[in-house]
Amino acid sequence: MTRYVMVADLRRCVGCQTCTAACKEGNATPPGVQWRRVLDQETGTYPQVNRVFVPVGCQHCANPPCLEVCPSTATRQRPDGIVTIDDSLCIGCSYCIMACPYDARSLVGETDYAFGRTPTAAEAARAGSGTAGIATKCTFCAGRIDAGVARGLVPGQDPDATPLCVNNCISGALGFGDIDDPAGPVAALLAETQWFRMHETEGTEPGFYYIWDKAPP
Amino acid sequence: MSRSVASLHQRNWDSRAAGNFIAGGTGSGLIVTAALAAAAGEPVRSALMMGLGCVVTGLSLVWLEIGKPWRALNVFFHPHTSWMTREAIVAGLLVPAALIGVGTADATAVTFAALLACGFLYCQARMLRVAQGVPAWRQAEVVPLILATGFAEGSGIFLLVGRATTGWLTLALFACVLRQAAWHAYRAALAGTPAAARSLAAFETITARRARGAHLAGVVLIALALVVSISGARGVMPILAGAGGALAALAGWGLKAVLITRAGFTRAIAVPVIPARGSRGMHARQTSQS
Questions:
Q1: Within 13 Å of residue A23, how many CA atoms lie on the same side as its CB?
Q2: Alpha-carbon distance B272 to B123, whole Å?
Q3: Could A102 and B277 be called an inter-chain contact, meaning their C-beta atoms sit closer than 8 Å?
Q4: Which of A9, A43, A99 sits opposite B133 (nearest CB)?
Q5: Nearest CB partner across the interface for A11, out of B71, B84, B277
Q6: Contact status of B279 with chain A (Cβ, < 8 Å)
Q7: What's the rounded mean pLDDT across residues B99-111?
Q8: How far apart are alpha carbons A200 and B278 in whole angstroms?
């Protein structure tokens, strides 16, 4: 089986938001909607303070609560673990947004463009697909993955088959790949590091791993 | 642009969504009370009509809220797991069943409608229960709270539109006591949830306090009406019962309005450890925040 997951090495992320910008440019998300965000968390009290940058977005859970609640079956899960939204089925009830523990989904309001009334080419393509009034979220750039795999490329290793945020990460903090491939880079990276997944107690089994240290000797 | 890691106030389900829980709860409770009254041989057409009207009004409010209203029939596509689909299916059965009850005034038909109304109310409660993104709704105790307040509202309204006899006063009082118990259980559970601090604060706002005040006032008035009814001096009893019933319903509406529109905060992003950034060999430390 194949299960695509994303890895964020919190030791490396510098909070530059390049992943956010790359996603927004490539996927033409409407103003106010960001599929890939980087949160900025400060902890501690002076002088013992810390700052952590945390890339977040859809965690493509193995047990996605959004899928369970969706009344229209617009939310689906592919065999490779990617959770998708069928734009033609979604009724925009926002129930999936309420069910997501990761605040990863947005409801697209009325058609709006980043630069006034004239859409960019990418925005025109998105608006043409009727996304106003429906829920939207990160797709792990499923279209790029599918096109790349069809050409024999390996997601996570070949840029043309890899999500845009990973391709554009300047510090190599983001990684992507098939966690079920024991010889793949993701499995190897997770084996040699310590990591956590967010809100594990919710039983969602998210497909987003946060690395925070090397593995203990 | 960075965003706070703190929980955020959900703004997707607004007063229209709250209206569905308010009107749906009241309508369901009213239909159930009407069924009990029908079994006792009382006329229940007006109560049934009003209950059905409430349910339909609530669903209409939701229809106005969804982003693609002309695709609304897609809501029926996922009965396997979605409580929203189940709510819609039960509503689809409840409407004709209640209409038959109104038309025939037959106790069996009304009882069937009441069973469906119970199912409708249960679906609404479970809809909130599975919303994992909102800790205040995720509480298991939200289910009895929604059920109890629906019955309290319905039995309260019945005192206005039906006959306020000793039996129905007792029922309304019992439902209010049940709601109070459910509220305390819910509030205690919420207080034990670390991610629900902002939701707890929402339940201390003036609107929430007024709702609780209306509840207490309603209980007192219904209890007084009950005492007057038992004593046989019926002069002011209908006024006390009507005012008490109205306050009991108002209290539930206020509670659900706060629950949906003001207490709905998302989970905070949880980072349980600080990464060992910068120097090699520096082990990560447990944070004081998560």
A1: 27
A2: 35
A3: no
A4: A99
A5: B277
A6: no
A7: 92
A8: 27
Question: Does B134 sit within 8 Å of A72, measured CB to CB?
Answer: no
For B177, what's the count of Cα atoms within 13 Å in the CB-facing half-sphere?
A: 9
* Through-space distance between the first and last CA atoms of chain A, rounded to whole angstroms: 31
**Residue B170 near chain A (CB below 8 Å):** no
Give me the pLDDT at residue B2, please: 38
Return the SS3 of B286.
strand
C-alpha to C-alpha distances, A159 to A3, A163, A171, B101, nearest whole angstrom? 18, 8, 15, 65
Residues 6+ apart with CB under 8 A from A217: none
Distance CA A168, CA B42 (A): 72
Q: In what order do the strands lie in the sheet with A174-178?
A: A174-178, A4-9, A208-214, A193-196
Residue B287 touches chain A, beta carbons under 8 Å: yes
pLDDT tens digit at each of 217 positions of chain A: 899 999 999 999 999 999 999 999 999 888 889 999 999 988 878 888 888 999 999 999 999 999 999 999 999 999 999 999 999 999 999 999 999 999 999 998 777 777 877 888 777 776 655 678 999 999 999 999 999 999 999 999 999 999 999 999 999 999 999 999 999 999 999 999 999 999 999 999 999 999 999 998 8
- Per CB-CB distance under 8 Å, the chain A contacts of B4 are 39
The reported pTM is 0.92
Mutant choice from B9, B80, B82 vs A, greatest count of A C-beta within 10 A: B82
Cβ–Cβ of B133/A199 closer than 8 Å? no
Amino acid at A157: Q
Residues 80-119 (B) with a CB less than 8 A from some CB of A: 81-85, 88
Of A70, A90, A101, the CB nearest to B132: A101
